[in-house]
Known about the structure:
Blueprint: H1 2-31, E1 36-42, H2 52-61, H3 76-84, E2 89-97, E3 101-108, E4 111-116, E5 122-126, E6 131-132, E7 144-147, H4 158-162, H5 165-170, H6 173-184, H7 187-192, E8 193-198, E9 204-208, E10 214-218, H8 223-241, E11 246-250, E12 258-261
Parallel strand pairs: 1-3, 4-7, 7-8, 10-11
Antiparallel strand pairs: 2-3, 4-5, 5-6, 8-9, 9-10, 11-12
Amino acid sequence: MKAKVKQILLWSVTVILALALFSFVNQRRKNALCTSVKVEFTGNPELQFVGKEDVLDLLYSKGFRIEQVAVGSINLMEIEKELTRHPAIKSTEAFFTSGNVLNIRVQKREPVLRVIDSSGESYYLDEDGEYMPLQDSYTARVPVASGVIMEKMPGVTMKEIMQSDSLQKVCILDDLYMISSAARRDTFIWAQMEQLNVLPDREIELIPAIGPGKVLLGDASGISDKFNRFSLFYKEGLPKAGWNTYSSINLKFNNQIICTQNTY
């Protein structure tokens, strides 16, 4: 019995000492000064919408004091929240590593399409279908959509548009987004797609980099099959017929490629 009591007491003292040591080390770490800041980015390295200096300038402009400041007084959640407000940043993660270095990991937003609507307003749609404003410092090399495009709907997400029959009747952005997203998954198609043009009847033309002047897609329905036919025609048909033989091709009908020959 006495042995059991001694064992319990020993275990209790060990736990108390461990907690005390942890508290001491934790407090000491909180009082230690932040030595430096490391900013790293995830996502497409070619995108230059935001860099390390932009991140630091934003934090300093919002009153954050970091280097040579006690680690315990730096609010990591507020840093993450503030940075995520930047229009080119999708998410952030802030944490300390050994040596009291503040690490800030930034995931960039990646545009898949630049839209110029009927009112003349211009903006990007990113990989998640979210609106993304243009930046003065950098322009992304993505396809441009123009033509009969109504003004964007602030506060309405692409997912909501895609799930609403009534919104789809008045908005073409969901089709443009789906076409761009599908093209982005195929390096050959992506390299060919320079522009999307929305016609008055809401049908969509693709303006390719080479070959016929326009490719009629219709809408986004069956877009994977349309792009498969596009690739097959470009890789096997056009080289034989001649790159300047056709003025346009029509892919809107299932299992068909309708070509219009140049008249000059």
